[in-house]
Amino acid sequence: MDMTVECNRIEDMTERMSLALDGLLGEAEWRELEAHMVSCGVCQAEWQAMQAISTMLSESAMVGPPLGFAIRVERRMGEHATKRRRVFGGVAVLTSSLSLAGLTVAAILILLGAIFAWQWIAPLPPIHQGTEVVSKLASGAGLLGKGATLFLGDLLLQYGPPLALALALGLVLLAGLWIWLVSRRPGGSRRHHNGYA
Questions:
Q1: Contact 43, 7 (CB under 8 A)
Q2: In the chain, where are the structural domains located?
Q3: Residues 21, 51: contact at Cβ < 8 Å?
Q4: SS3 122
Q5: Residue 156, C-beta contacts closer than 8 angstroms, at least 6 positions apart
Q6: Tens digits of per-residue pLDDT, 31-71?
Q7: Contact, 43 vs 13, CB < 8 A?
Q8: How far is CA 89 from CA 29, 144, 172, in A?
Q9: Contact assessment for residue 183 and residue 88, using Cβ atoms and an 8 Å cutoff
Q10: What are the tens digits of pLDDT across the range 124-134?
């Protein structure tokens, strides 16, 4: 047999050899393969090499994962979940703090405005003039309201569209952040399956 001659059916025959090793080759195809190998040294050498590799692989012991592999994977997954919970908690606390800080600043500004209006209208009257104090406080609050209305009206006339756009953008960003937080919360509907449970 001359093995220097190249086989023009090597791909087809190699596929049949692979099927034969797996026990999936039909009897007629097996006979055709055998007849071809008798006249083709290239395919015969290929068949012998494939048989040797198949025998070597079948005699080798199957190696499983190292001892403690599943435990290490579970531990790492737990650490990852803990980190996610910490990040989620930090972002939730930050956004809650910012929201609370915004409300606090607004309340302080209103309180300072009321104190300023109260001092601006008249000095604090004595305690025995209680009704006058209530009357002046109501008057001061009314003046403060009118002043705030005039200020905001003037501000909106000059900078209305940019302020409205900035406010809308801020609300959209805050809503998006809260939606992201709710969807990514740890222990939510998405669970990881590692194939061991």
A1: yes
A2: 10-59, 69-183
A3: yes
A4: coil
A5: 163
A6: 999 999 998 989 999 999 999 998 888 887 777 788 888 88
A7: yes
A8: 66, 40, 21
A9: no
A10: 455 445 566 66
Q: Which residue from 31, 40, 38 is spatially nearest to 11, judged by alpha carbons?
A: 40
The mean predicted confidence, pLDDT, of the chain is 75
* C-alpha 98: how far from chain center: 23
Continuous segment of H or E residues that includes residue 8: none
- Contact between 114 and 139 under an 8 Å Cβ cutoff? The reply is no
DSSP 4: T
Q: Retrieve residue 28's tokens.
A: 């007629």
AA letter at 95: T
Query: What angle do the packed helices 69-121 and 130-183 form, to 10 degrees?
Result: 160
Question: With b meaning 16 or more CB within 10 Å and e meaning fewer, what string describes 101-128?
Answer: eeeeeeeeeeeebeeebbeeeeeeeeee
Check if the beta carbon of residue 136 is closer than 8 Å to that of residue 122. yes
CA dist 188 and 184 (Å) reads 7
Rg (CA), the chain: 42
pTM passes above 0.85: no
